[in-house]
Fold ribose-phosphate diphosphokinase.
Amino acid sequence: MNIILFSLPGNETMSQKLAKHLNAEIGESTIRQFPDGESYVKLNTNVKGKCVLLVCTLNEPDNKLLPLYFLSQTAKDLGAACTCLVTPYLAYMRQDKRFQPGEGITSTYFGKLISSFADTLTTVDPHLHRRSSLSEVYNIPNKVIHAAPHISQWIKANIEKPVLIGPDGESVQWVSEVAKNAGAPFTILQKIRHSDRDVEVSIPDVENYKDHTPILVDDIISTARTMIETVQHLKRAEMKPPICIGVHAVFAGNAYEELMNSGAAMVITCNTIPHKTNKIDLSDIIAENIRDLMKNS
């Protein structure tokens, strides 16, 4: 089946990389707003009988969802064989239970909404927390890609004598995997989150790693409070300035500038969300998983 990619605004670079790996066509679309704020979408490339890949990373998702929905529905109306969502960063994974009376479980609602108009879903390291698999939230065929091997490769190629530092107990499994593949030691911190911007982090045991380069690893860098606090601890412990690595470059508000000003030597992210820190390209493994998903769907 012929594959055609449509890139939502801001996803052009990833779409070009995926099209090259998949030997696929890139379609042209028009997405704009009417003066009253309503969305207008138009597919300028024929999609009849083709598998349509909609490439749209879902940071700041509320403004992206309607154009994404309209594009999927338009493609199906125009005869597309399927519409498959490629979203390197998947939003609305955090609120997966009712923490306070009256709260909405938005993770579940968002999953139902996406599943209603996409035939498959491909994403990278979703924030599963209390979920054992993405299929608990999405009732469509899906692929979860892990960035750990690519992060390990980057560390091996660029850092001498690293020590990896995970932010909390939830990070043990994947930080240990990155460390193992990079041939590096690791340590895990204890984190207490008092609020979105008030995070208390335990002082890491770093006495044995004074001559190592600390690598702080996390899946999402949002407010960056955890990393900033850890950078300060490492500074007081007279460690080398750390390198901060995140899979998803959310960087809410001035988080990136604050992290750099805290004393981090460098901030590196994967290219799941476009940002100037993107140094680790995941397009090859995303394309590989798209192929597998299409074969089995």
The longest helix spans residues 62-77. The chain has two domains: 3-146+282-296, 148-280. Residues 219 and 247 are 5 Å apart (CA to CA). Residues 148-280 form a domain with the Rossmann fold fold (CATH 3.40.50.2020).
